[in-house]
Every structure is written in structure tokens, then in C-alpha cells.
Amino acid sequence: MTGRLFIANLILVILLLSCRGNSKKQGEFVFPDADSIPVSETEKLSPEFLDDITRNISSPVEISDILHRLGVPFSTAYLASSIDASKLSTSFDKALKLGILGADLGYLNMYEKTGTSIDVLASIKKLADGINVGQFFDFETIKRLSLNRSNIDSLFLLSNNSYNQIDKFLRDKGRGQLSALMLTGVWIEGQYLASEVMKQNPDTLLRNRVGEQKLIINDLQMLLSPYCNSSDEFKNLCQSMQEIREKYKDVKITYSIGEPVMKEKNGALVVVQTDQSRVEMTNDQLKGIIEVTEKIRTKLITGN
Questions:
Q1: What are the helix (H) ranges across 25-151?
Q2: Which residue from 36, 145, 208, 240 puts its CA 20 to 30 A from 153's CA?
Q3: In this structure, what DSSP letter does residue 35 have?
Q4: In whole angstroms, what is the distance from residue 274 CA to residue 259 CA?
Q5: Do residues 254 and 225 lie in contact, with contact meaning Cβ atoms separated by under 8 Å?
Q6: What angle do CA 153, 157, 158 make, to 5 degrees?
Q7: What are 148-203's pLDDT values in tens digits?
Q8: Is the dihedral of CA 136, 140, 141, 145 positive or negative?
Q9: Residue 264, φ and ψ in degrees, nearest 5
């Protein structure tokens, strides 16, 4: 998780709740339970804060990047290959699956699986056009970059920028429910990728990333809460996300603010943040998170 998201959540906690946890030392905060931030506060969030949390949630490549750096082998079994974009009829399904496939696209491109990524991209185009946001995808450029491995960084930037623009456009046009669905899809697929890998590769870095998602779950709850009673589809989705949040209830996250330091990088001095987070999560808690993630992700994809 990026430092920006930690700071954003930290500011929210301070402004809304004053931080309930007892500090062990100055500059250290224990994040409160997810349920401690009232749903009613959702409408009070500033556009800047919403931009920040959605920008972090909507990055479809962060978990994939971690898996790649850890040397985790690529597996097609992790992909949401059962999604058939041509058979989705509602905006709800299209927006949710657009997010899921966006995370898969990031995973494929990270591992340079260009052939499969073209197929996923075609499905993404259908879904994006289906909710009238296809104009934010430069499909020809993304397709060209997908076939050229030397431009992988440009591909990541272009793909992420497209999702960020879609999110902002939907919220600006009063279609925030579709933005919330897309972001939920991105998150659940990234969470699924991390959870499945954790079964075979219990790496500490990946374990901490899974634990830190307690904060993201709270952000998603705030984004989804205005729509939970708008339809049966949303009601079921909110209940499913609540199942995951319940598994995080006893996970503890402590965030320590460190002093920034100056270091030389490529002949220039840069400021390096020394902020740190500490996740306290038992093996049983992790197992419960992995199991419920797999169950909910399967439910969202198959509709059963």
C-alpha cells in the first residue's frame, strides 16, 4: 500500500474520530476497527479525499507487481476467464466485471502475457462501451503496447490512467454507483490474486499487503454505502463485502510516522519517507480472509 493512502486514512481517522488507540510513542497510531467510522460520514468526504482513495484502489497492477518481484510463477488459473462480456446485460454487471478484468489485465501485462492480454482487452472494450466510458480507453495504443514488451511501463501508465479517468468521469456525471462497482471489482480481483498465491507462497511482504487491505475494505464500504439499498444487486454486494470485513475485524494495523531522510539516487538527492506500518494478523485470521475472498470472488463472477 502506498504512503499516500496511509496518510489519507490517517487524516480521516484524526478528523472524524480522533484516533482511539493508545500510542506507544509519539507519531505512532493504531488504526481503529473498520466499523468505527460511521457510514453517515461518507457524504462528508471531500472530492480530494475520494480522488485519493479511488486512485489507490483502482491501480490494477500493485499486487501483480509484488507477485512478479517475488518471483511467483504466472498461472492462468488465477484469471477470471469465465467472464463473457457479450452475455452481461446490466450496467451493474458490466461495471463490476470491468474492474475485475482490469486487474487481470494488469496481471497479464506484468508477466508479459501479451497474447492473452489482447483477448482480455477485447472484453474490456465491450464492457467499457456498454457503460459509455469507452472513450477513455485508447484501445489501439494499449493493444500496440501490449504486443511490444519494451513499452511495458508505458502500458501500465496508460491502463491505470484510463481507469482513473473513468472513475472521475462517472462520479462527475452522477454515476458514482458504477465507479464504486468498478473499484470493487479491481479490489476483489487483486485481493483474490494475493490470497491464492498466499496458499503456496506465504511471503511476509504479501502477507502484510493482505493484512493492510483492512483499510481498503473500509474505503470501499464508504464508497458503496450510499447505494447498498438501491437495488437487490447492490444489497447482495454490500452483504458480501461485509463478510470480508468481518474477517478483518481483529486484524490490527499500527502506523508509525518516521522522519524523512535525504538519499542520493541517480546523482540527485531525493527525499525518502521512513513511515512504517505493522500488521498483527494470526494464521487463523489470514486463513479466514483467504477463504472468504475466494468464496465472494467466485460468487461475483458466476452470479451464484
A1: 47-57, 62-69, 91-110, 114-130, 139-146
A2: 208
A3: G
A4: 6
A5: no
A6: 115
A7: 555 556 655 666 677 778 877 887 888 888 988 988 999 999 999 999 998 888 88
A8: positive
A9: -90, 130
How would you classify residue 303: left for phi > 0, otherwise alpha for psi between -120 and 50, otherwise beta?
left
Question: Residue 199 burial (CB < 10 Å; 0-12/13-18/19+)?
Answer: exposed
| Residue 145: CB atoms within 10 Å | 23
Q: What is the pTM of this model?
A: 0.77
Given a contact cutoff of 8 angstroms between Cβ atoms, the answer to whether 101 and 124 are in contact is: yes
* Signed CA dihedral, 288, 302, 93, 227: sign only: negative
Rounded (5°) CA angle 221-51-207: 55
Contacts of 253 (CB under 8 A, 6+ apart): 30, 31, 211, 212, 214, 215, 277, 278, 279, 280
Residue 4: pLDDT band by 50, 70, 90 thresholds?
very low
Number of other CB atoms surrounding residue 152 within 10 Å? 15
Q: Which residue has the cell 492480454?
A: 117
